[in-house]
Amino acid sequence: MLNEQTIATLNAMKLFGMAQAFQERLSSARQAELSHADFVGLLVQDEKAYRDNQRLKRLLRNAKLRQPAALEDIDYRQPRGLSKQAMLELGSTQWIEGHRTVLITGPSGIGKSYLACALGNFAARAGYTVLYLRAPRLFEALQQARGDGSHLKTLAKLARVQLLIIDDLLLTPLTDWERQDLLEIVEDRYQCGATVITSQCPIGDWHPNIGDPTLADAICDRLLHNAYKIELKGDSMRKNSAATPTPNHKKGGANIADDTNVS
Hints:
Oligomer: single chain
Order of helices and strands: HHHHHEHEHHEHEHHEH
CATH architecture of the largest domain: 3-Layer(aba) Sandwich
Strand order of the largest sheet: 2-3-4-1-5
Helix content: 40-55%
Radius of gyration: 23 Å
Number of domains: 2
CATH superfamily of the largest domain: P-loop containing nucleotide triphosphate hydrolases
Structural class: alpha/beta
Strand content: 5-15%
CATH class of the largest domain: Alpha Beta
Distance between the termini: 39 Å
Shape: elongated
């Protein structure tokens, strides 16, 4: 009865990791003749492991990644201009801590979104807040936010994310309000947050596709400064292998209007 009360008390105190491990640890402690200090120490480790695991689940859920990609699963066999050295550098957290930008360009189906999601997965597992958004959905959400008065709040929310992934930028030339929003996002994140952007449009064509020369200068200057540039080439990887549907993942990324916790 006392053990059940202890477990109930641990749960009431929201020490769920300790509560889950208590009975098992108690049995092993008796067998190993552990001291009270060692027994409590193991329970503390169990609680930390539980909290770390819960935080990781929350970070991955809030990231809304399009697919469960991983850096270690990247296919280098198909020649597409992907440097192992570049990906090795991105396999450390220095670029995130340095608030750098990663620009991934190339034709449709070459694996841009996969690389972006792999970087997002890596960042979340390293403990950073991540948010994946397709550019069309991003601009649509910001336009809706203008209408309901939450535009500034939405921009502030994007600025707080430690790694923001914008997929499929410049599928079409930007409208006036889209380039204004893009400038605000880029300005808020410049030297303050890491950003990954994918685009079918070559970087050399970004300026005319953004539109207004003054705004295009400001946007490109901030995006290109100290950025990693990955230019993929070759045939579509989707055409070379059958696509595998991924359940429980939203196509098109997150809806900013969702109550996504970025803390």
